[in-house]
Amino acid sequence: MKQLGPDLWCGDYEVLQSYKHCRKILDSKRLEEDCELNKLKPSQRFWKISRNDWARPWKFVPGQSNYYRMQEFGLMELAGVQQADFPDIEDCQDFMLQIRTLYVCDLHQGKGVGRRILDQVKEVADRSGCVVFLFVRPFGFDSGSGTMMGIRSWEELVTAAIEEERDVLYWKKTACGSVRNFYEVAGFTNICLAGPRSQPDPDENDAWQYEYCYLPKSLERLHREQLAERLNAGLSRFCNC
To answer: What's the domain range around 153?
Structure first.
């Protein structure tokens, strides 16, 4: 069967009719799903799409249901927000989510895995209209001697992060420049995320430089306006909380 033009085909007639029937069913299903998604808040849409499309190895395990296996070698955890986190942003829980954890096996870092994961996140954010934010705090898992252990495989990552729940060791801020650049190149924007629940380091006055968000193309105008002051990173009143 070959398509020669709009609604113009040549080939087996029965195969053609079967194909058209299947396509009509699929189009109807997609329309139905879109209608259902449009009834949800942006953050609800993000949760629904991601839970349908991405692998969740522990989806039935309490406390671990928001962990995802991404691009085979990446572990990501998502978290919702509460109004108390950002009192100045009305209904922030309806259109904001946090990437709480993102780790790619050491052996596969530098191969584009992290970038592909962020592209997946951005795609769902664009479909849902949900803002996704994160704090740039590169980390590793304690080997048991106060040094970071190397993670070579997905199985080792699961053991360290989920099964053994090893202590986390953070990089020094002076070594985070390349990671900040990674998010900027990937399309994330600086934003001040300080709030009443923040616990800033008294010796640190540039925390906002390590706070990023992705603003989806489908973000509603009202939601963008609510974030306007915080997006004025470095000059916002929230940057000096």
So the answer is: 42-240
